[in-house]
Every structure is written in C-alpha cells, then in structure tokens.
Amino acid sequence: MEKEKVTLPKFDTEKYLKEGDAIYAQRAEVEKVADKISKDGYSNIFLLGIGGTWAEFAPIKYAIEKYSDVDVYLVNAAELNVLKHRKLTKDSIVITASASGDTKEIVEAVKWIVADGIQVMAFTKSTGPLGQVAQTVIEANVTTGMCEYSYLLFNLLALRLLYNRGDFPDYELFADQMKGIFKNLVDIREQFDPKAEEIAKKYYSEPYNIWVGSGALWGETYLFSMCILEEMQWVRTKSVTSPEFFHGTLELVEKDVPVFLVKGEDECRALDTRVETFCKKITDNLIVFDTAEYALDGIDDKFRALVSPLIATSLLTERLAAHYETYTKHNLNYRRYYRQFEY
C-alpha cells in the first residue's frame, strides 16, 4: 500500500534530506580531525559555547561522561572570559561552534585561548572571525537553525575521540547507522506535526510555562524554552531540570499552569517519570514529549539515548516552533534587542 504523502508546513523535505546527506558526507572529515586530535594527545576536553551553542553541547558532555572517564568541561564563553579555568591548559583540547561565525563571547575567548597555545577545533564558517582564529575548522554549508545537523557532527567528533581511547568500541556501527537518521527524522516530524499544531494553538498565549527535562535532553529542553520561546517568540518560560524541579518550581504548579515535560530514554528517565507522576495530580495541562514513542528504523536501541536530542529538536525546535510562529503571528527571525545594537 502506497504511503500517504504528508506535507509539512514551513518545511522543505527535499532540501532537508539533501542537506542531511551533505552533513553525513562530512563524516570522513570529522574523523580525520578527531584522529589528529587523538594522535597529538590531550589531557581533557573543553566544550565552549554560549546560549544555544552551550545547550547543543550539553548532550555531548552527557555522552562523553557516559562512556569515558576523560575529564570534560562544558563552559560558558562569557564566564570563561572573566573567570578563566585552572584545568584549561596547553594539554587541553577546546571544541566550540558558531553558526554565524562571529559570536562575540566565543570569539573573545578563542583569541586568548589560542594565544595561550591551546588547540581549538571550531564548527563554524572558515571565513568568519572565529574561523580565522581557531587552528582547526569544520564548516557545514547548510541551513542554520537545524540543530540535528550540529548534533550529528558533534557526536561523530566526540564519539570518534572516545573510540580512539578505547571507550566507545561501537563507533563504526553508530556512525554507519547515522546515515539513515535524517529520513527517520522526517518520518518523526510527519507523525508529530498534527499534535504540534494542537499544542501551539492551545498554549501559545499562556502567560507562564514550565519546561522540564534531564540527562541527554536537558540541553534541548533549555534551548527550546530559551532560544525559541523566549528569544524568538517572547513567551515567558521557566526551564528546570527534573531533579531540580522538586526544589522550588513544584510550588508554582497549579491546576491551569502548563508543564511541558521532555521525557528522555537515558538513566534520568526515572527522574522525568517522577515529575510526570507529580504533575498529573496537580495540573490539567501536562504535556509530555516522550522520545521513546518515536521509531528509529535501522538504528540500534543501544544508541537511542545518543540520538534522542535529534528526535527532540525535530519535535520542538522545528515543528512546534513553526506552529507557535503561526499562532503568535510573531516571526521567528524578529528581535527587539538581540544583535540589534551594542550591549
């Protein structure tokens, strides 16, 4: 039986799959960089970001800590510029990213980090200010804003580093299976899209929203609530981790307060379930995004925790954001303050 053709509003499936192929085609380039880093040696790994980039690196920190005992630090560039870090030395490897290529705080940090003789590997434009400073650059010539492109490249780099250390022997299998990830993510979008529209229509004008996540999905939860809802939609949110939810935020849950739970598939799922159980008793507006509900054809279950951020960003940062924009009538690209003047 022929599958019914589904049209996703504000989404170019053909372009997306073509760009996904281009991202996957960079696998060899990423592996070459990882192999050189491994050969040169390093004592620890610094993931350097700010805002959305910091959030995108959060699941990478989770993955490294899950499989390896190598020290990994996820640092905010603005804080690093003023606080520095005693563990950041000439033996460190710094991994950073900037889609624009000119993120102010990251460029400032990388300039003095490189001047101190520390190696920096950046996912960015080779011609931008960051690309001109970092010693190693990987450039992805695809549409910005699709976080799963970044997640795949970051995962390939980090897990290849762990493979070279003997910490992630399944790397080749994982990387081979990622060839089909973007087709899977289109199917997931199609499955979720009607629900995304219902959620946006019902909750777009709520005065206050609570967003909860944990583990590998905390970064994506924070990214959506901060980058999309706050920055791009001017929707007031509170984002909190599942373990921290019970130390403050729970007192703000009432019958009519929406609680959005991004439920993961890793070790922290039990913490998410605890939040879910509590909120079912209190609010009539609990919305659960459970990545376990979505199939991944051709990808082993043991990799689902690693891939779950790609599922979550397909649901939230892409589909749900598109429908919020429709109902708020607020263009996702419009800003009042961000990058509009010096501050």
Q: Which series of helices and strands comes N to C?
A: HHEHEHEHEHEHHHEHEHEHEH
Helix content range of the residues, please? 40-55%
So what's the oligomer here? single chain
Largest sheet descriptor: 5 strands, parallel
Based on Cα principal axes, name the global outline. globular
Q: Between the first and last Cα atoms, what is the distance in angstroms?
A: 58 Å
Overall strand count: 9
Strand order of the largest sheet: 2-1-3-4-5
Average pLDDT works out at: 96
CATH architectural grouping of the largest domain: 3-Layer(aba) Sandwich
CATH fold type of the largest domain: Rossmann fold
* Text of the CATH class of the largest domain: Alpha Beta
**Number of helical segments?**
13
Helix-and-strand structural type: alpha/beta
Number of domains: 2
The CATH superfamily of the largest domain appears as: Glucose-6-phosphate isomerase like protein, domain 1
Radius of gyration: 20 Å
Strand content: 5-15%
Stretches where pLDDT is under 50 for at least 5 consecutive residues are none
Protein name: Fructoselysine-6-phosphate deglycase
Domain SIS: 33-172
